[in-house]
Amino acid sequence: MAGSIVQPEKELPQNLAQSHITAFAAGFTKNLAQKRDDSTVVTMPGATGISYNAKGPFKVTPLLETNEKKSWLKKNKYVLDSAAVKFSEEEGDLKQSFPTVVALTRMVNGKEQRIIVSGDADFMSTAELKRYGVKNCNFIFNTALFSWLSYGEFPIDTSRPESKDKRMKVSTEQVKFQKIIFVWILPAIVLAFAAVLLIRRKRK
Question: b/e map of 37-73 (b: 16 or more CB within 10 Å)?
């Protein structure tokens, strides 16, 4: 689309789009699904939205989408070092959720052809992999794209199921009992052991 995504935030470039992972993209890898559950974003500096025809030969599915409450598509050029960029409907700015990365699929000779189209490729750059000031998951998203394009053959999935024992419930009475053990009984045992050890060493 003409223009670029603007998302003004303190201490971050105004053209840094923070795109959210869609449910379809989250299905690429388990790691990416976890990042989506944590609301982790993919940072894309200078990106634009992607418009597409749903009736074309390809099935188009968004992989990343912008937040319509925090960002918009700025049609005219602007200076990054200037004051905060303002939304202007008169200048053709559009405020809605835009797909910034989409997946294209179609069947060719019995095999699914897969294509990735992005509003900008800088999300794969080293600068974005080391981005400071915002928690992103660009590396995991990039790896997930390669996995999808290779039909899940790369990289090898070495993840393990989550442990079922993730919580320990303790009552108030149990806390009091544990406090007695850790504050009084265990230190007393250590002290007694140290005293016995010192006495035996002095006797020798």
Answer: eeebbbbbbbbbbbeeeeeeebebebbbbbeeeebbb
